Predict the structure.
Amino acid sequence: MNGGFKPYVPVAERRKSAEQAMGRMRRSGVTLQPVTIEGRHIAQTFWGKAWCDHLESYSDFENRLPRGRTYVRNGSVCHLEILRGRINAKVQGSSMYDVAVDIRPLPGPSWDSIKKRCTGKIVSLLDLLQGRLSAGVMEVVTDRETGLFPSPREIRMQCSCPDWATMCKHVAAVLYGVGARLDTQPELLFLLRGVDHDELIDARAEAAVQEVVSGGKGRRISEKDLGAIFGLNVDVGAPPARIPPRSRAGKVPAKKGAPRVKRKRKPAKSAEKRRVKPRPPSRKKPR
Ligand SMILES: [Zn+2]
């Protein structure tokens, strides 16, 4: 023993203990949401990566966070649950430890400002959740000071382990685990910050797009009508020089005369590379 600290437990042994403990918890009726990392990167999509990048950008965290990477990768985060303002987790170390992270809700004025700056720029919930956002919107939501992600002073962390200091490897693993979870459930970021992501969607634009997409049978919307709805977002001729045209697999070419909606956005940096699971986004409002 080393002064009260538990001895180092090899990964394989820790993994085995984790599986046994998870089995016991499941049998006793506990619903576990383990973090499973597939592939080389902890987070692979826009929101997951943005979460990790944000936390790593703080010097308070940069020295301590890396210790959590191995833990989260090898399946030590046996449970991770994201609630409004709270992350509850169970991490297998030399024992099973309970981690709790409290995150302050996004202050009202900050949320109002984000909404204002994104007005009319996010056409659909799917675009928002899959991170298909214009460079301008990305800048707003990921801004270190005024974006959606919490600053260190808005985060309170606790762990039941004996070597608990400001941030132990269990808490670090949980913070990375949140990045991995946002890959598949990006809407949880909004729940965590206590805001309703639906408020970012331009409802009129989404309705108009739905009508165009399902159109053909019903009345056609003229470009003039669309212009009134979208303001500047209607493609009435050549695309703006700065936005390169891109082709999408399976896209049906627009019929002559049919209105085309130009979404002012660029794909996320690695949009082509990342693997997006075809999971329909939840429309449930966070509570
Ligand atoms: Zn700990």
Remarks:
- The longest strand covers residues 96-103.
- Residues 11-106+148-199 form one domain.
